[in-house]
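To whoever picks this up:

The nightly regression suite flagged Glycerophosphoryl diester phosphodiesterase membrane domain-containing protein as changed. Nothing in the input moved, so I suspect the structure step. Input below, exactly as stored in the fixture:
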Amino acid sequence: MMETFRRERTLLLAIGGFFMLLPTALLYAFLPPMPQPAAGDDAFVMMVAYYRQHQPEFIIHTLWITFGELAMTVLLAAPDRPTVGEALVRALRLYPWHLLQRLVVVLAMIGGALMFILPALYFSGRLALCTPLLAVGEGRNPLALMRRSQQLTRGAGWHIAAFVILVWLGTTLFSSAVGTISAAMFKPFGAGGVAHVADALVQGAAMLPGLLLGALLPVVLLRQLKAAQR
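Regenerated output under the current build:
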């Protein structure tokens, strides 16, 4: 995985910077901080109200990032090694199908979570290859992509799920730690102005490694599992 990143790091960082770092930094820069609950307030209710109030911004942020994720996947996974421009055009054509398959996968995982948490984790491993399979042209139908992902990951669902969870935990803890330190550093400068923008850039940069790994990991898994089945 690191070899793939080193080989494509310039392009990955360029796409990741524009489609992941930039929208995240803009989101943190222009949204007001989430209000802190006072004594007796329900923190969960306040959080839901905050996200509902700023729902359009979070939807735009999510769409922007998922397009960048798909573009990076096409760049890494396509066998004909497209240029950045070609990868962006292909990603744009595949984007509606990408959103549809992501929705179907999320619904499947929610169904597993309703039964118990372990089935949801298992599904996350078995369905981890849907996006790179879409990128390499193995169909667009979400159900067909899910079946193909299950074929390739047969016998490895728990291993993949455990690896994905470990990567997610590591990157989440890293971004949370950096975010906490950044917020503490810039807090004395007030809630707005240059300090707020600088804090947003730092927090966006802290999230970038996790987003890059989220795009890179399924591509590497797809290559390894296909090679193992030859």
